[in-house]
Design a protein that fits this description.
3-stranded antiparallel beta sheet, 6 helices, alpha+beta, N-terminal domain of TfIIb, two-stranded antiparallel sheet, binds iron/sulfur cluster, 4 domains
Length: 191
């Protein structure tokens, strides 16, 4: 008989149950080991506007010379929105965080080419600032067609994500609306 490792475990579990052993404590212990000595960080699922609360378990961040890494993500039972539950997308959030295909560098595709070039974050910030200013200088409207003051910039839009707190949204409104005149400002949580 060719038995796989999974078959072996299944047969063993069935045999233990038949002999009257209670496997629940062993299962609970295995789960506890997975998150033993991890740091719990409360966060928000970034995928959709429901904004469910999650707990991210990180191992290794208390040890000297160890690089912290995420071992588990679960729903936050104390969160008022989801009360511990997550949908199938949210429950797979760890695979978003721990993923070697995750982009960690700036990739720039210049106009007229199909090739991406690696750039620095400083370069990207300067580029965004330059384009923002150039567009604002060119399209900002102080008056409407009837001469009324509007001080409006409608050629640039700003959108916030569902993980942004009230304070970030406040600063965003202050900076972009009050400071720069941007009219189209939206928030994922409202969509
Ligand atoms: S867990 Fe699902 S429903 Fe909740 S925020 Fe994430 S994607 Fe949206």
């Amino acid at each position: 008989m060719n038995a796989t490792r999974r078959d072996f475990l299944r047969i063993g579990a069935a045999g233990a149950a038949a002999l009257g052993f209670d496997l629940a404590p062993a299962r609970a212990e295995a789960r506890a080991l997975k998150i033993a000595r991890t740091t719990e960080t409360r966060s928000t699922c970034p995928y959709c506007s429901v904004s469910c609360g999650v707990i991210v378990h990180t191992a290794g961040d208390k040890a000297r010379n160890a690089k912290p890494f995420v071992v588990h993500v679960e729903g936050d039972p104390d969160h008022p929105i989801n009360q511990g539950s997550l949908c199938s997308k949210g429950i797979a959030l760890k695979n978003n965080i721990v993923n070697d295909r995750r982009l960690t560098k700036v990739l720039y595709r210049a106009p007229g080419t199909d090739k991406f070039e690696e750039r620095t974050w400083d370069w990207a910030i300067d580029r965004i600032a330059h384009l923002f200013k150039e567009t604002r200088d060119r399209t900002f409207r102080e008056k409407d067609s009837q001469g009324r003051t509007i001080n409006a910039l409608t050629s640039i839009g700003v959108i916030g994500g569902c993980t942004d707190a009230n304070e970030i949204n406040y600063l965003m409104s202050k900076t972009f609306r009050a400071g720069l005149g941007v009219v189209p400002i939206e928030q994922q949580s409202r969509i």
